[in-house]
Design a protein that fits this description.
- Belongs to the FGGY kinase family.
- Strands 1, 2, 3, 5, 13, 14 and 15 form a 7-stranded mixed β-sheet that branches.
- The radius of gyration is 22 Å and the shape is globular.
- 51% of the residues are buried.
- The protein has a domain at 5-244: 2-Layer Sandwich (Nucleotidyltransferase, domain 5), CATH 3.30.420.
- Strand 22 (408-412), helix 15 (419-429) and strand 23 (433-436) form a beta-alpha-beta unit.
- The chain is an alpha/beta fold.
- It is built from 18 helices and 24 strands.
């Protein structure tokens, strides 16, 4: 048996996942726990941080130890990742003062964004590094200041999810460089410090976590955290990072030209580059691996839209699953297998929760265009998957326009369980799409980073040899030709209806 083991836990939008791996990066235990996302009113999306984030970490950790039978003393390091771009104010005891405001799907701070655009004027993009959007955390801090003054007055730190979890584990308030960019312009990432000159209207510099790198050791597990997680006091804990960055690592996205397409609740992209680009349609920045840069981007819907279809148009299949039948999503995939590429002239704009990149428009709306009496729910569903595929293709266009070559496409997330959807993406892109041989996602990335951090592996190159692609999905170029024609309509639809969307 391995002499030491490494744990990784990832807290996502709808589920927390955890793995234990041995020194060969083989998974020896896996656990997951689902949780709800709160949507108390339009444009508001929240989590109860103490119940969901911390509660899940404790229960998943204990479940992993119980399943594996491994002594806590043999866990050499714990890696953490969590959903990013969220804002949680806590008091001096790291107790949340309100519900956590989630990432770009929560667009409540649109008035603050308008104010910041007016305040900074033509310099806004320079100050933030991109058009200010609902994924930025500083407008969320400003929203708390304007709308929850009693919370703002008591706040000791403004944290994102991984920072909160790491603080609960170790007592240290830190954030990795990859996530610190979400707080623009509050950090000076050239010097890895708080940008005190820019904090002014937002918060005090002391209310922000210190900047570290994702694979540094933040500290050891405290006695209190040990009692709650079942882990041994003093066990090393990584600084932690965002779920999408950790997921990219889990798939072997290690080299410039590699891209991860994450088909999760939303669709998220991490492209690795050897240089920093400037393009305000996406989110360029640093990456977890030293010496590399990233081009990140994210839509607002992917799995959330398939869930909407299940709950509203395929409720019979959901009921059949609840009665012991086939998984509803698997049955839905079979239902659309015979629908031709292009869904017989039906095009869907998948902006059911506004849109992040490349539109950066929280008021974008969903649309079914081209409906006729011959269309069925099967057409509607396939068209929606195609709409997400068109959005993915728009991001690949941006890479091409910036002369960034795409060498390897790794698809990850729950959407990879749908072979029809994977084929749609490959056909729309006209490129081969790969899936990972190990599909535990970000939690696996956390665990292998933990192994690297404590010396079980000496370099990222050694780790790359462990993580291999599993399956290749090759494009049907006849379907690609059909999709090329429909994409022109898809691209034009938003431009043609943007003002009408906003008037709603």
């Amino acid at each position: 048996m391995s002499s030491q083991f490494f744990m990784g836990i990832d807290v996502g939008t709808n589920e927390t996942k955890g793995v234990l791996i041995d020194e060969n990066c083989k998974v020896v235990a896996y656990q997951s726990k689902t949780h709800d996302i709160e949507n108390p009113q339009p444009n508001y999306f929240e989590h109860d941080a103490e119940k969901v984030w911390w509660g899940d970490v404790c229960s998943v950790s204990r479940a992993l130890l119980e399943e594996s039978g491994i002594s806590p003393s043999k866990i050499a390091c714990l890696g953490i990742s969590a959903l990013g771009c969220d804002c949680l104010p806590v008091d001096e005891n790291c107790k949340p003062l309100c519900k956590a405001i989630l990432y770009g799907i929560d667009s409540r701070s649109h008035k603050e964004i308008d104010y910041l655009n007016e305040y900074y004027g033509e310099n806004a993009e320079t100050v933030f590094g991109h058009p200010i959007c609902s994924s930025d955390i500083s407008p969320k801090i400003l929203w708390i200041k304007n709308n929850l003054p009693h919370v703002y007055a008591k706040t000791y730190k403004f944290l994102t999810a991984s920072s909160y979890i790491t603080a609960k584990l170790t007592g240290r308030y830190c954030i990795d460089k990859y996530l610190a960019e979400d707080f623009a312009p509050l950090y000076d990432l050239k010097n890895d410090t708080v940008n005190e000159a820019m904090c002014g209207m937002f918060c005090k510099p002391s209310q922000l976590a210190e900047v570290m790198t994702a694979t540094e050791i933040a500290g050891g597990i405290t006695a209190q955290a040990a009692a709650e997680t079942g882990l041994q006091e003093g066990t090393s804990v990584l600084v932690g990072t965002g779920d999408s960055g950790a997921e990219a690592i889990s798939t072997g996205v290690f080299q410039p030209g590699d891209i991860m397409v994450q088909l999760g609740s939303s669709c998220y992209f991490v492209y690795l580059a050897d240089k920093l680009i400037q393009d305000n349609r996406v989110w360029p920045g640093t990456f977890i691996i030293p010496g590399t840069y990233s081009v990140c981007a994210g839509t607002n819907t992917a799995g959330t839209l398939t869930k909407w279809f299940r709950d509203n148009l395929y409720s019979d299949l959901a009921a059949a699953q609840a009665a012991g039948g086939e998984n509803a999503f698997a049955a839905m995939a079979k239902d659309i297998e015979k629908i031709p590429a292009g869904s017989d002239g039906l095009i869907t704009l998948p902006y059911f929760a506004g849109e992040r990149t490349p539109l950066n428009d929280p008021f974008a709306k969903g649309m079914f265009f081209g409906l006729n009496l011959g269309h069925t729910r099967s057409h509607l569903y396939k068209s929606a998957l195609e709409g997400i595929g068109y959005s993915i293709a728009q991001h690949f266009d941006i890479l091409e326009e910036n002369n960034l070559p795409v060498k390897k496409i790794m698809a990850v997330g729950g959407g990879t369980k749908n072979p029809v959807w994977l084929q749609i993406v490959a056909d729309i892109l006209g490129r081969t799409v790969c899936t990972s041989s190990i599909t535990f996602g970000a939690s696996y990335g956390d665990a292998i980073m933990a192994a690297l951090a404590v010396g079980a592996y000496q370099s990222w190159g050694e780790l790359e040899a462990v993580v291999k692609p599993a399956m290749e999905i090759h494009p049907n170029m006849e379907n690609h030709a059909v999709y090329q024609k429909h994409r022109k309509i898809f691209d034009a639809l938003y431009i043609s209806t943007k003002e009408l969307m906003h008037s709603l």
